[in-house]
Protein: AlpA family phage regulatory protein
Amino acid sequence: MNQNTQFQSLSDRVIREDECRKLTGVCRTTRYELEKKGRFPSRLNLGGRSVGWLLSEVMEWVKSRDRINSGKAV
Structure:
């Protein structure tokens, strides 16, 4: 497995609520509202009441927020 493939497989793992909150700094309710508006990655139904998100999609969202915030005047 080359380095690029290894990184991709690590970043495509499913993360759960607690880790998603820690990575984004956004509470569950706000994330769900953003998701409804198409502004946050969609949840994956893991069965029953369990949901998760692809780490790669969440990290891309975090990076996009960084780009938006770095473009604003302080």
